[in-house]
Amino acid sequence: MGVLIGLMALAALGCWLLAAGSALELMVYHRRRDRGVLWYAVRGFAFWSRGNFGPSAGGAHGRFRIGFIGFFCTVIAMALLLLLLDEAG
Questions:
Q1: Contact between residue 67 and residue 84 where contact means Cβ atoms under 8 Å apart
Q2: Which of 31, 35, 61, 87 ranks highest by number of CB atoms within 10 Å?
Q3: What is the pLDDT of residues 36-58, one digit of tens each?
Q4: Phi, psi (5° rounding) for residue 57?
Q5: Do 64 and 20 contact (CB within 8 A), yes or no?
């Protein structure tokens, strides 16, 4: 079971890196001209709305969503697996 937890942690790390890299790409290359980097840094919810970025941000925005959702799904799955292992053992 330790190998399974390790693989899930590796998947969570990969998803987190995908989301963080996509968020950085969105802030640097696709942000709207009337908004600065600090505006995005203070308003994390802004990354969920496609309208907060320029017209060429479609791919990076989709990667951010996949990475963010994947990260939380793997973390929840790891927590549930650890709870099940604790009760079984």
A1: no
A2: 61
A3: 888 888 888 888 989 899 999 99
A4: -90, 10
A5: no
pTM for the whole structure:
0.86
First to last CA, the chain: 12
Contacts by residues 68-72 (CB-CB < 8 Å, ≥ 24 positions apart): 68/15, 68/19, 70/11, 70/12, 70/15, 70/18, 70/19, 71/12, 71/15, 71/16, 71/19
In this structure, is the dihedral angle defined by the CA atoms of residues 77, 83, 85 and 88, taken in order, positive or negative?
negative
Structure tokens at 1: 């079971």
